[in-house]
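Feature request, filed as a ticket because there's no other form

It would be nice if the structure record came with a short human-readable summary line next to the tokens. Right now we just get the raw output. Example of a typical job, pasted below so the devs can see what we mean:
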Amino acid sequence: MNSPRRWFWTATLAAATVAASCGAKSPSSAAPAFSATSLAGDAISLASLQGSVVLLDFWATWCPPCREQIPHLIDLHDAYRARGFTVIGASVDHNPGVVAPFVTQMGITYPVIMAEPAMSQAYKVRAIPTTVLIDQAGRIRRRYSGYLPKTVLERDIRQVLDEAPAKALL
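Raw output as currently delivered:
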């Protein structure tokens, strides 16, 4: 392999490593407040979820990595909800009419809301999927951009669930 090509692949690997490690950081900042109505008609707000560990997933029906990640989110929601964990799907689709049939088709068991642009902006969504892990006190513990393997999500969810709840920031 010639030198410029080796440099390209080394730089690409380094950039991928840095990007992958972004989810490992613990920002521990207060999660922006939100309130919305789920597709099922339930009122959902960050304040109403206080005391729970929340995985807020920004996604779209047309996004292949989002579609690939949804079955993992369903499994995690079902496996850990008895321990005070929930997934909230925040669709960034512009047409709510396509979201409900998609939710049914995918068998999504967790609440799904339509993410308003202000909510996406508050959570600094620059790409989808963007997934945010929020602890029992309403602090952002992890922020992920792009598809994540189930093992990474599960490891981080279990870590936060196993910690003693801190004083709420809400």
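Something like this underneath would help us a lot:
The first helix runs from residue 3 to 21.
The radius of gyration is 17 Å.
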